[in-house]
């Protein structure tokens, strides 16, 4: 699990930006610890909120809907509390094997958590998708918070009707206007979470900031750069698997395969003269090095696996928990069509 740097130290170092967290500490309190599921429709800002509160990058972000495919835990460690945020895929009506698995991940996130926080885009009008989300939330029996996100882009008078509309739809324990991007309003939400968490010992070591294995985190960072580099149907057809993750004293060697469904998509990922795949590799390597705190040698390959999103066996392998159980079992991908290798370009 990722534990390479001290979250508390980083938060203190960024006191100017994260100073609001200092307000929530009360040394007279006993230790509190618990889990908060962050749920919401696609592109509502769930991953951005998790990254902001944890104080470091835990979940990848892109403007593409349904970027998050798995439950990801971000851990905020503090002297008197440990808050474990569970990032989830967006709430939607599933229409395929992959989307069904993603909604299954979101449903599993409700199991064993202490609080659920529904984050919604305050700039969007209330619609059928919001009504579906509110109905879906009724399966949870604990306190549910409403986080109205992107309030930095909404006038205050416009918030009141939206709050009233949501109150008619669901009985929320608390409602907070926030900006996941700037951190505005997040201090109040965090403080309220901690007040409602049970007294309990920490669930993770104090130097751990996520439950993700480093190899899965690396795969996600590669996928993030591939999402940013492509458009239209290509981002949804991308899957990344780590073939080799070899750690030495001064270097981590990573070999990863990016899978797509069609030859045309592979051509877009590679780019003219391999320019796009090299750019993806360079940017991903820098992100991985920044988070893991060590030098990385990254080698990328692109393979075509037709209609992998319709293959239940392949889709199941996207779950890193299952990957750990079946490490090395890649039979589903044997015989994949053409391969292109692209070592990333390192700046001197």
Strand order of the largest sheet: 2-3-1-4-5-6
Q: Indicate the CATH topology of the largest domain.
A: Rossmann fold
CATH class of the largest domain: Alpha Beta
Number of DSSP strand runs: 10
- Percentage of residues in strands: 15-25%
Count of all domains = 2
Largest sheet properties: 6 strands, mixed
Poorly predicted parts: 4-20, 22-27, 330-348
Helix content: 25-40%
Q: Could you tell me the radius of gyration in angstroms?
A: 21 Å
Tell me the distance between the termini. Answer: 31 Å
Average pLDDT score: 86
Q: Overall 3D geometry?
A: globular
Number of helices: 12
Structural class computed from helices and strand pairing: alpha/beta
Topology order in helix (H) and strand (E) letters:
HHEHEEHEHEHEHHEEHHEHHE
CATH superfamily of the largest domain: P-loop containing nucleotide triphosphate hydrolases
Question: Which architecture of the largest domain per CATH?
Answer: 3-Layer(aba) Sandwich
Provide a concise account of the structure shown.
With 348 residues, the protein is of the alpha/beta class.
Explain the overall architecture.
The protein has helices spanning 7-13, 15-18, 46-54, 97-109, 128-137, 156-169, 186-196, 214-229, 263-270, 275-292, 312-316, 320-325, and strands at residues 32-39, 72-78, 81-87, 115-121, 144-149, 174-177, 239-247, 251-260, 295-304, 339-343. It is an alpha/beta fold. The chain has two domains: 7-196, 3-Layer(aba) Sandwich (Rossmann fold), CATH 3.40.50; 214-343, K homology (KH) domain (GMP Synthetase, Chain A, domain 3). Helix 5 (128-137) links the parallel strand 4 and strand 5 (144-149).
């Amino acid at each position: 699990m990722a534990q390479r740097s001290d979250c508390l130290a980083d938060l203190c170092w960024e006191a100017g930006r994260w100073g609001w967290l200092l307000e929530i500490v009360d040394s007279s309190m006993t230790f509190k610890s618990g889990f908060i599921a962050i749920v919401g429709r696609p592109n509502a800002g769930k991953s951005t909120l998790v990254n902001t509160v944890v104080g470091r990058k835990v979940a990848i972000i892109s403007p593409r809907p349904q970027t998050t495919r798995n439950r990801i835990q971000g851990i905020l460690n503090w002297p008197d509390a440990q808050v474990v945020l569970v990032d989830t895929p967006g709430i939607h009506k599933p229409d395929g094997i992959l989307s069904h698995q993603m909604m299954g991940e979101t449903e599993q996130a409700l199991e064993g958590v202490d609080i659920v926080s529904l984050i919604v885009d305050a700039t969007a009008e209330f619609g059928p998708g919001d009504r579906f989300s509110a109905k879906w939330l009724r399966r949870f029996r604990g306190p549910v918070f409403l986080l109205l996100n992107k309030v930095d882009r909404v006038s205050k008078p416009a918030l009141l009707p939206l709050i009233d509309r949501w109150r008619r739809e669901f009985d929320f324990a608390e409602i907070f206007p926030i900006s996941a991007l700037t951190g505005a309003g997040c201090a109040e939400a965090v403080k309220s979470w901690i007040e409602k968490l049970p007294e309990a010992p920490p669930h993770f070591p104090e130097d751990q900031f996520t439950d993700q294995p480093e190899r899965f985190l690396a795969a996600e960072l590669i996928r993030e750069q591939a999402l940013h580099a492509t458009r239209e149907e290509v981002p949804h057809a991308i899957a990344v698997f780590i073939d080799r993750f070899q750690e030495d004293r001064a270097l981590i060697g990573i070999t990863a395969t990016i899978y797509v469904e069609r030859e045309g998509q592979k051509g877009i990922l590679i780019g003219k003269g391999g320019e796009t795949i090299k750019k993806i590799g360079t940017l991903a390597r820098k992100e991985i090095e920044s988070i893991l705190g060590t030098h990385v040698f990254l080698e990328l390959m692109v393979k075509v696996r037709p209609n992998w999103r319709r293959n239940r066996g392949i889709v199941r392998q996207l779950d890193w928990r299952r990957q750990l159980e079946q490490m090395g079992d890649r039979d589903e991908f044997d015989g994949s069509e053409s391969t292109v290798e692209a070592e990333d370009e390192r700046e001197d």
